[in-house]
Amino acid sequence: MFRKTPGTKDILPDEVSCWQEIEEATRNIFSLYNYREIRTPIIEEAALFNRSLGESAEIVQKQMFLIKKDKPRPCAQERGKDAYALRPEGTASIVRAYIENNLGKAAGLIKVYYIGPMFRAERPQKGRLRQFHHLGCEVLGSQAPNLDVEVITLADNLLKAYEIDGYKITINSLGCAKDKQEFTRDLRKNLTDKLPKLCADCQERFKGNVLRILDCKNEGCIELVKGLNIRQGHLCPECKGHFDKVSAGLGSLKIDYAVNPYLVRGLDYYTRTVFEIIHNDLGAQNALGAGGRYDNLVHDLGGPDLGAIGFAFGVERLLLVRSQESGVRSKKLVYLITLGEEAKKEGLKILDSLRKAQISSDTDYEDKSLKGAMRRANDLAARFVVIIGEDEIKKGAVTLKDMASGEQKEIKQEELVNYVTHSYLR
Ligand code: AMP
């Protein structure tokens, strides 16, 4: 027997309704904010991610699923161009698509959202998969602080629409590229004598991605960096002003957030505002979602110089913290039970008329007993059961059971569609 590969998951029919609820709420909220959906390929040039996320990012170093090209390039400088990668995240692909399709020219500022699978070769554990799903958005074309406010508020409203509570929003500003450089230099200087006390991962980070040390989850590293007493002192006046406006905007909308100067995010492309949303029920992998500005990335990838911001939630983690009850809803399904051969023939027509009227319906194809078929209707969470046997055929009627109220009555066959339609509207 074949088994699924480690770190992947079958989303079975029983779970799919929860996914669909999340997807539906997502589309509704994004449309309220005037975002349109974008779908980019799952496979991209590996070099796109090396370039955007940064060579030292953990994702690039250790987690990309690479597919070798048929004809490897001989030249050493072209490293990364020898392979395609299964996308580990959405931002780089969307920026690539924006530039390649010249989206800015036609639309100016562009607001897009996406839902789809991402791939990272990580060690699987609770909330950490190799194939998982992102649901996120990107806005390209503005540095306005109110846009940061919109995007963070949007993330908050999505969580409310999913009926998730108990999460915490933390924000920070990394400043512009120059601020980041200074911050990195100072941090490296301040950490030099503490290097031997850092965990093995942070010793690596010290070489390539020193900011990452600030959000290491290792207890020893947390204590060490606490001692550095990090404030937002590296921000230039413009970046400080930008951050103040973002904070004030969030405050005016009564968004519950905290500033965490230790929040850095691991990817090269982030500048200015970064944010993360965590939930304590998740355990070690406690981030529900995260995002931030990337004001230099579009230009770095060959496009115009413009501000941009986005975020992504992990769908599997949203589902882990979503209250179980919110997923259980009685379905608008009519379940038809036929008793006898004549009833089966009549049943075909009844189902056909229900479906033509856009009413979801199903029947028993396994010759179950009445009791067995009722049990099946229950399992399917059907809203109505329609029973037809010899008696009903003679009268041109059906027996209708409302599974919500338990009420049962006989109605004329030709009234069935109307009756169900009106009940659904009530
Ligand atoms: P990131 O791009 O790493 O900030 O990811 C954004 C969100 O995606 C995280 O906050 C998680 O909710 C989710 N996520 C990231 N990596 C994984 C993974 N390996 N398995 C499941 N969810 C993930």
Break the fold down into its secondary structure elements and pairings.
Blueprint: H1 13-32, E1 36-37, E2 43-45, H2 46-53, H3 58-63, E3 66-68, E4 83-86, H4 91-100, H5 103-107, E5 110-119, E6 131-140, H6 145-161, E7 167-173, H7 177-191, H8 200-208, H9 219-226, H10 237-252, E8 257-259, E9 271-279, E10 287-293, H11 297-300, E11 308-314, H12 315-321, H13 324-327, E12 334-338, H14 341-356, E13 361-363, H15 370-379, E14 384-388, H16 390-395, E15 397-402, E16 408-412, H17 416-425
Parallel strand pairs: 1-5, 7-8, 12-13, 12-14
Antiparallel strand pairs: 2-4, 3-4, 5-6, 6-11, 7-9, 9-10, 10-11, 14-15, 15-16
The structure holds adenosine monophosphate.
Detailed description of the structure:
By secondary structure, the chain is an alpha+beta fold. The chain has 17 helices and 16 strands. The longest helix is centred in the N-terminal third of the chain and has 20 residues, at 13-32. The strands form three sheets. Strands 1-5-6-11-10-9-7-8 form an eight-stranded mixed β-sheet, with helices on both faces. It has a five-stranded mixed β-sheet with strand order 13-12-14-15-16, sandwiched between helices. The model has no long low-confidence stretch (mean pLDDT 92). 36% of the residues are buried. The two termini are 49 Å apart. The radius of gyration is 27 Å and the shape is elongated. It has helices spanning 13-32, 46-53, 58-63, 91-100, 103-107, 145-161, 177-191, 200-208, 219-226, 237-252, 297-300, 315-321, 324-327, 341-356, 370-379, 390-395, 416-425, and strands at residues 36-37, 43-45, 66-68, 83-86, 110-119, 131-140, 167-173, 257-259, 271-279, 287-293, 308-314, 334-338, 361-363, 384-388, 397-402, 408-412. It is 40% helix and 21% strand. The structure holds adenosine monophosphate. Adenosine monophosphate (AMP) is lined by residues 89, 120, 122, 127-129, 132, 134, 287-290, 312-314, 316-317.
